[in-house]
Write a structure and sequence with these properties.
- The complex is a heterodimer.
- The longest helix of chain A has 19 residues.
- Chain A is an alpha+beta fold.
- Chain A folds into two domains: 177 residues, D-Maltodextrin-Binding Protein, domain 2 (3-Layer(aba) Sandwich), CATH 3.40.190.10; 198 residues, D-Maltodextrin-Binding Protein, domain 2 (3-Layer(aba) Sandwich).
- Chain B has 13 helices and two strands; from the N terminus they run ααββααααααααααα.
- A two-stranded antiparallel ribbon of chain B has the order 1-2.
- In chain B, a hairpin with a 7-residue loop joins strand 1 and strand 2.
- Classes of the chains: A alpha+beta, B mainly alpha.
């Protein structure tokens, strides 16, 4: 009995040593990602594995359970070699030291200055770099060209202001039946930061201070945007299901072909068209009276702080930022390149709508806040209470109370 | 097999101390595996939680002492106080409904009659479904998009329907299990007592209040303790079915702890709330057992 315990201890000891010494030969690098990003992560890994000695192994977790999975892995000091995360959560993970400091390695890259600047900022904490962009997903307006034609609108003239957006949504809504003018995630924090904030930025307003420690949600620009969506919902132009939409059925609503025009993630262009029997148009999200902006979302990725293959892991990351990966993996798959100098590439120019999306990146923003998840995304976040009040309850009170509740949560 | 081999060895070594010491040693050996399990998986984690609650505890890196900030820091948290009230309200509702349903079902199938076996099985069967799976099942059944009952009870429509849906789920999933415990208690009551009551001319209601309930006291104490602790620790049903909504109306205490630990990454505060909840649980259980203890027992 004693001998067998000793044998087990010896074996685990040997295995432990073997793991530590593995940076020399071909390494297996583990990569964690959320389900939403799985296809892109796997496409990167497949292309990389085909041409490199090291192997990247991708494991995906359900979107909602992913932050908890990362937190428990960090607590157990068992983080993977690489892990991607929603770019808005990056400041929190960087501040907690879950990613390795890659400042010197990143700054030594020849393309460092051309990597999506908003994303890069979110991967920094106190002046040091911890993460680089992995995928980019931006908010745009998607509209159903067939419904536009039926409603007597010009399918090649999308709205250039939020007021025009409302007018066109009303025109489509008049078709009646199952058709609705627009749709939004009225019970989904992550959806609304993504789709409503660009209208605030396009009008020159802001939702937070620069450090992400105080909310300015009670400004006139945000109030104007809420008032417009509230009116669309009250008139029945926005589908009634918008009120309880928590995220999971958002895509399905747009895929049904019964929605005229709605803000949505740019990656849905390909996903919806794959199955749809109607044509989609793409337009930038605008402010009440004009302007253009977008929420530069997607995922950031860094080297796990407890990784034993940091060298191999960085080799993969630097490869993903190169021309080959960005054009032959990302652009070929209809994605948005994470490099500003690759917006007009051979694959994008084939579809003018993709160029529209790609060129928006320079005008867009990625909000920076350490407590983003707890403040805006989580189902119990103060943001959800705030916008539910602004859209369906006492608008003035919820914006004033909301601003102080959001600031309290951001400053934690 | 092990005992036959090891006993002579123990006997030889322990012989001078006499058989009493040998018996004590054997007892210790028998208890050792359980003691080790309880120590490693209950006492040590419990101590760690208490220790964590006194520190600022980062996911990686060195913890630093900050007591009592984790305990005082949550005092103005309205989400926490609302969740505490909701959990208390939910516990009262569930305890009354679940206990009466389980007892009613147990009384229905107490005597052997044709078909009782079928009903006992049918009542107990939901307990064989994992709770998380059962929650997902209800989420599907009550979904406005895909569920057959989506229009009847909406999990996101209003605070009342969301709570109603969760209560329905818990009743369906746990009534059968609690019925089973109550049934074993009922069957432990000797039939002679019932026969004697009958001879004395006791009616059905009198038999129930003067024979069944007093003799079932210990079992009732056990079932009520299980229900109350389970309700105070409610998580799955709200996490999966309602996500704490709409508008935080069904956010339970454990969900707030989960949020502090895994969303805010504030492990110290999460541990502090857990410690307070544990103290409340112990206090409630002590009061409950004191009130319901079988006073006739030695």
């Amino acid at each position: 009995m004693k001998r067998s315990i000793a044998a087990v201890l010896l074996m685990t000891g040997v295995a432990g040593c073997g793991g530590q010494a593995a940076d020399d030969g071909p390494a297996t690098v583990t990569l964690w990602t959320r389900a939403a990003t799985e296809t892109v992560s796997k496409a990167y890994a497949e292309a990389y594995n085909a041409t490199h000695e090291d192997t990247v192994e991708v494991t995906a977790y359900p979107n909602e359970e992913y932050p908890a999975k990362l937190a428990s892995a960090a607590g157990a000091k068992a983080l993977p070699d690489l892990f991607a995360a929603d770019v808005v959560f990056a400041p929190q993970y960087a501040s907690q030291g879950l990613w390795l400091d890659i400042t010197d390695r990143f700054e030594a890259l020849p393309v460092a200055g051309k990597v999506a600047p908003a994303h890069v900022r979110n991967g920094t904490w106190e002046g040091r770099h911890y993460a680089v962009p992995h995928t980019i997903d931006m908010s745009v307006l998607l509209y159903n060209k067939d419904l536009y034609t039926r409603a007597g609108l010009d399918p090649d003239k999308p709205p250039t202001s939020l007021t025009e957006f409302a007018a066109q949504a009303r025109a489509v809504d008049k078709l009646g039946g199952d058709v609705n003018g627009t749709y939004f995630g009225g019970n989904c924090g992550g959806c609304n930061v993504f789709t409503l904030w660009p209208s605030v930025w396009a009008a020159g307003g802001d939702v937070m201070n620069d450090d992400g420690t105080a909310s300015t949600i009670n400004g006139p620009e945000m109030a104007g945007v809420f008032a417009l969506y509230r009116q669309l919902f009250d008139e029945g132009v926005a589908a009634p299901a918008s009120k309880d939409e928590a995220g999971p059925t958002w895509l399905g609503a747009l895929q049904s072909g019964n929605i005229g025009i709605a803000p949505a993630p740019s990656v849905w262009l390909g996903i919806i068209e794959e199955k749809a029997d109607f044509a989609l148009g793409v337009a930038p999200i605008s402010g009440l009276t004009g302007g253009e902006s977008t929420f530069v979302g997607g995922d950031a990725i860094g080297v796990g702080a407890t990784s034993k293959h940091a060298g191999a892991a960085w080799d993969f990351l630097s490869w993903t930022l190169g021309d080959e990966a960005q054009i032959e993996v990302i652009a070929k798959g209809k994605g948005v390149p994470v490099r500003t100098d690759l917006a007009a590439n051979t694959y994008a120019t084939a579809d003018p709508r993709v160029v529209t999306i790609n060129s928006l990146m320079a005008k867009g923003r990625t909000p920076y806040a350490k407590n983003f998840n707890a403040t805006y995304n989580d189902p119990q976040s103060p943001w959800i209470a705030t916008f539910r009040g602004a859209l369906f309850g006492d608008a003035t009170a919820s914006l004033t109370d909301g601003a102080s509740a959001l600031t309290a949560s951001l400053a934690k | 097999m092990t005992t036959t081999v090891s006993r002579p060895a123990v006997a030889v070594r322990a012989a001078p101390a006499g058989p009493r010491r040998r018996r004590a040693l054997t007892g210790l050996l028998y208890a050792a595996p359980t003691a080790f399990m309880v120590g490693a998986f209950f006492v040590v984690p419990l101590g760690l939680v208490a220790w964590m609650s006194l520190h600022r505890w980062p996911l990686l890196g060195v913890p630093s002492l900050n007591a009592p900030a984790n305990y005082t820091g949550s005092t103005g948290d309205t989400l926490l106080t609302d969740a505490a009230w909701f959990t208390a309200r939910y516990t009262v509702i569930i305890t009354v409904l679940l206990f009466t349903t389980a007892l009613g079902m147990a009384l229905l199938v107490q005597r052997k009659r044709p078909g009782t076996g079928l009903f006992r099985t049918a009542f107990f069967l939901p307990a064989a479904v994992g709770f998380a799976s059962a929650s997902l099942l209800f989420l599907g059944l009550l979904s406005a998009e895909i569920g057959p009952f989506g229009g009847v009870v909406s999990v996101s429509g209003s605070a009342t329907t969301a709570l109603g849906a969760a209560i329905l789920l818990v009743l369906w999933r746990f009534a059968g299990f609690n019925m089973l415990i109550l049934l074993t208690g009922l069957q432990a009551i000797p039939t002679e007592v019932y026969e004697a009551a009958k001879l004395d001319g006791a009616g059905r209601w009198q038999t129930f209040t003067h024979i069944t309930l007093p003799l079932l006291r210990a079992t009732i104490a056990l079932v009520l303790t299980l229900i109350v602790t389970g309700s105070l620790l409610a998580f799955d049903q709200f996490w999966i079915l309602t996500r704490g909504g709409p508008d935080n109306s069904t956010t339970s205490l454990v969900m707030v702890i989960y949020r502090k630990a895994f969303i805010e990454l504030d492990l110290g505060s999460a541990a502090a709330v857990s410690v307070v909840l544990l103290i409340v649980l112990v206090a409630v259980s002590l009061v409950q057992l004191a009130v319901l203890r079988d006073r006739s027992a030695p």
